[in-house]
Design a protein that fits this description.
The chain has about 70 residues and is of the alpha+beta class. The chain contains two helices and two strands.
Length: about 70
């Protein structure tokens, strides 16, 4: 925070940094995290997208979802 910005300034910086991913990532199920490094902020490089681990569902594993019938 060498720019000595307040909350609004920090928000503007983060919006600029996240602009490349903030509309795309929420609809992508293959992305677990977005990593923002100092290099992303200082040098305007793209954030790192961390992929989700593939989930395997076993024979007796319903994936944690149970529906109740009425």
């Amino acid at each position: 925070i060498l720019r000595q910005t307040g909350a609004r300034g920090l928000r503007a910086i983060m919006e600029e940094v996240l602009q490349s991913v903030m509309y795309e990532v929420p609809s992508r199920k293959d992305v677990a995290r977005v990593v923002i490094t100092p290099d992303v902020v200082r040098n305007h490089v793209n954030p790192t997208l961390v992929p989700r681990e593939p989930r395997t569902i076993g024979k007796n594993d319903g994936g944690g979802r149970h529906e109740k019938s009425a």
